[in-house]
């Protein structure tokens, strides 16, 4: 199994910054991809950013230039630095892991609210 622990969500004003962190504990699995998805009320869960073990990064167009994903392979941690936050970034953010065996795992989610 893979257990994911997220931290760093909260309330921030427009233009502000937040940093999300996720730590993965993986028994018997090798982690391939780590990243973040988000889901706003009434909407589907969408990709925010992912990074592979080899360092290939993918961002949603809506966050390019504002968000930065980083990963520590040795510690199985992934971080999402979110700058210039907008109200439309408000959502529950989920940590995501894909293991080499092809299975996905999700964290419980952390709320990010951007509001004045």
Q: Note the overall shape.
A: globular
Mean pLDDT: 96
Radius of gyration, in Å, reads 14 Å
The helix-strand sequence is EEEEEEEEEEE
* Percent in strands: over 45%
**Main pleated sheet:** 7 strands, mixed
The low-confidence runs, each spanning 5 or more residues with pLDDT under 50, are: none
* N-C termini distance: 40 Å
Helix content: under 10%
Q: In terms of structural class, how would the helical and strand content be classed?
A: mainly beta
Number of helices: 0
Give structural notes.
This protein has 116 residues and is mainly β. It is built from no helices and eleven strands. It has strands at residues 2-7, 10-12, 18-26, 31-39, 46-52, 57-59, 67-72, 77-82, 91-99, 104-106, 110-114. The strands form two sheets. Strands 2, 4, 5, 6, 9, 10 and 11 form a seven-stranded mixed sheet that branches. The radius of gyration is 14 Å and the shape is globular. It starts with a strand and ends with a strand.
Summary, kept brief:
The protein is mostly beta strands and 116 residues long.
Features:
116 residues, mainly beta, seven-stranded mixed sheet, four-stranded antiparallel sheet, 11 strands, 57% strand, globular
Q: Mind sketching the topology for me?
A:
Layout: E1 2-7, E2 10-12, E3 18-26, E4 31-39, E5 46-52, E6 57-59, E7 67-72, E8 77-82, E9 91-99, E10 104-106, E11 110-114
Parallel strand pairs: 2-11
Antiparallel strand pairs: 1-3, 3-8, 4-5, 4-9, 5-6, 7-8, 9-10, 9-11
């Amino acid at each position: 199994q893979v257990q994911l622990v997220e931290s760093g969500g909260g309330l921030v004003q427009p233009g502000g910054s937040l940093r999300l962190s996720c730590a993965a504990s993986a028994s018997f699995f090798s982690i391939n991809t780590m990243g973040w998805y988000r889901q706003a009320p009434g909407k589907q869960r969408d990709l925010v950013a992912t990074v592979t073990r080899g360092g290939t990064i993918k961002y949603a167009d809506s966050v390019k230039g504002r968000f930065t994903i980083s990963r520590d392979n040795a510690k199985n941690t992934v971080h999402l630095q979110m700058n210039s936050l907008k109200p439309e970034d408000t959502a529950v953010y989920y940590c995501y892991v894909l293991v080499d065996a092809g299975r996905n795992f999700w964290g419980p989610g952390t709320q990010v609210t951007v509001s004045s």
